[in-house]
Amino acid sequence: MPLFADFLALFYPQVCAGCNGELLQGEEFVCINCLLSLPYTGFSRQTPNPAEQAFWGRVEIEAGSSFLYFRKGNATQKIMHRIKYKGEKELAEYMGRLMGQELQASNRFNGIEVVIPVPMHAAKQRKRGFNQSEWFAKGLSSITEAPTLTDVLLKTTATESQTKKSRWQRWVNADEKYTLINPQHISGKKVLLVDDTLTTGATLEACAQMLLQANPKSISIATMAFTQ
């Protein structure tokens, strides 16, 4: 199998999600140069941090973090684009593992018992083929050993893409679109809510407010990207 993989690489070289350069042997999804230069936020080691401050006065969370800064044209945007629009769910899982390693090293997310990805409406998920937040969560779960549950939150109303919406439109778009199911799965537990990008926080706030109805021990939030 390794020989066959090497043969395929001659004709279909794997390229880095950050810079599109050809990956070297032993590199996975992102080259070492990009891994060293990605725009890490460092939020997991700070408290309070901008990800946590985004929810002050809105919803109570125990801890919050975003892994990478998102800016137009930067490596984070390129990675997210490949995940969302080229269907690279394995890349999402890989990035989730990196985020999980950082959260685990920070000691601020110790004791997480359940990981909940922000859900995608069923029709949109069928069209895209997967929910990127779920795959971020799966990668994170493989590090933390806290299971990813997709049967707790349900998105009941389809909404338009958030990508080109203003901040106000994002607030309106997130309002009352989620339903809590199987609350017993998180009652009394430390929950980590995971999403792809934190911009206004409206979606995460709506989901967290819904999860609080199940009386979890605490809710923390982690996103792959933080919009600047």
Primary descriptors:
globular, 4-stranded parallel beta sheet, 2 domains, 39% helix, Rossmann fold, two-stranded antiparallel ribbon, 228 residues, alpha/beta
Protein described:
It contains nine helices and six strands, in the order αααβααβααβαββαβ. It has 228 residues and is α/β, with parallel strands linked by helices. It folds into two domains: 1-37, no CATH class; 38-227, Rossmann fold, CATH 3.40.50.2020. A four-stranded parallel beta sheet has the order 1-6-5-2, with helices on both faces. Strands 3-4 form a two-stranded antiparallel ribbon. Helix 9 (202-212) links the parallel strand 5 and strand 6 (218-227). Helix 4 (75-86) packs across helix 5 (89-106). The longest helix has 18 residues, at 89-106. The protein is globular.
Distance between the termini: 43 Å
Mean pLDDT: 90
Please tell me the total number of domains. Answer: 2
- By CATH, the topology of the largest domain is Rossmann fold
Helix content: 25-40%
Strand arrangement, largest sheet?
1-6-5-2
Structural class: alpha/beta
